[in-house]
UniProtKB/TrEMBL annotation:
Keywords: Membrane, Transmembrane, Transmembrane helix. Residues 27-193 form the DUF2207 domain. Signal peptide: none annotated. The keyword Membrane applies. The lineage of its organism: Bacteria, Bacillati, Bacillota, Bacilli, Bacillales. Residues 285-458 form the Predicted membrane protein YciQ-like C-terminal domain. This is DUF2207 domain-containing protein. Residues 538-560 are annotated as: Disordered. The keyword Metal-binding does not apply. It comes from Oceanobacillus picturae. The chain crosses the membrane at residues 233-255, 398-417, 423-442. Residues 544-560 have a biased composition (Gly residues).
Amino acid sequence: MKKISILLTILAILFIFPIEALAVEYSIEKTRIDAYLQENGEVHVTETHTYAFEGEFNGITRSLIPKKETAIVDVSAKEGDQALDVEQQVNEYRVYRSGSDETITVDLSYTIENGIEKYTDVARFDWPFFDQSNESDYNQMDVYVHPPKPTEGVIAYGEDEAAGSESIEEEGVVHFNMGHVDSGENGDIRTAFDASLFPNATLTEDTAIRGEILAKKEELDEKQAAYEARKDFFTTISPFIIGAFAIYLLILIIYTVRKRNAVQQEVERRFGTAYFVPKEEMSLPATIAYMNARLVNEKTLTAALLDLVRKGYVKHDDEEHFIVMERNTDHKHESLLLSWLFDKIGRNGEFTLKHLKVYTKDKKNHKAYRDDFHKWKQAVLEDIKGNKLKSNEGKLRIVVGISSLLLLPLIILFGIYGLFLSLAIMIVFFGTFFSFACLYSPRAVKGERIYKQWKSFQAKYPSLKEQEWEELQDDEQKRAFIYSLGTNNKHVNKASDKMMKATPQFNSGTQTDFVMFMVIAAAINHDFKEAHTTAAAAYSSSGGTPGGGVGGGGGGSGAF
């Protein structure tokens, strides 16, 4: 049965993530494309691709998408002198050459029919050997365009990834040295040669276009020059911008550290050493939530009910029966809890665990249970907020937030101009400042005092000796126990269990009452957890595509 489960899991993964599960690991180290222009308007192309594979592979793929009014024919492949099988699937060609952990070089040949557009003065060859549909990076891409005969007066330029990569070599050969090309990018090459070199090509249009091509090239050259100038400008100023924000961040760090140290020193100066069980400056449920990252759950609810017993608002006859003794409470969440447990779940000011089980057993009450719990939870959190435990740093957060927004234009500009190191640093700055603006809320003196005192209690409580526990007042013991129960700290809970076992050895009066207190806690905590789980579970159930290159052409590379 276990093997079947494993098999089904594997099949499910392969079904959901088929591409990722079966992906071939490879890189295209080098690609050279030679386009030989023919006098009749055809273009004979040879491509040399060097692949480095990790693991097993079956071959490579090459997507060849023809432009409108053109066709790609006679596709063949070889490795050295060995011919390789090629399978066509619309515009994708699969070249079969299997192996494992190898670096291979495959030569691909094909002919582009009607690849040259002839006009009265020039013939142009514009082609996208890859476009945005390409899924692989080329580590080094070189394209060479060879005229039928040696010539002069060649016009050449590139767009997108090919922009600024052209150079005219001996005998009129055009070389586009594009370097590294990322996947998903366009890279059109555009060339024009004297029309007399193509006597057998069909005239595309009886007009002269050399001036138009030169104007377009000049326009692109101007744009490229402007781009490079702006890139140089941002390259020059980026260290100063980064330095300025680094200093700003350092000042911010120094301010926050000094602020925190000042608050801690004030706590030490004014209050010194705290009692072992801290004095009650805030309601216990709110204190528990504050010390527990504002988490309010069934354990907090158990602690809140026990706190009502401790304060005398509620009396317990036995471990499952509770009676309201006083409704004039100190806090809103205490009144809400009395109303919820003793009037809505219980009856006539009485609450038992049987009431809780009957109430949550009825599915109609599940939404009401969750809603009432949420209201009580919000009241507890409002109690924390009302005690002003956090410093008001609104102005500082606004200033930092505005300064983080100033980084956005710089992030965009650094990305546009390819300043990737500066871009990464600015993104880190933005994340830091934006997070600071959203989250910075340091503890005030009162908040620091409460936090420090209860943290000290948590650290000392597990090592408390039985004699020291006996010396504590009954109310201190109960507050210590309620706090440990609500925060659910395993070390603190372990200490409470130890004290519970030791308690019967001492005085029988208040100590016996405390033992009953802990027995009650165990019972109601279990039932509140069960009620929470029940209510929460029920409530929650409630053909070939055109290329992106010039003329609708394009292509890309891959492996399988």
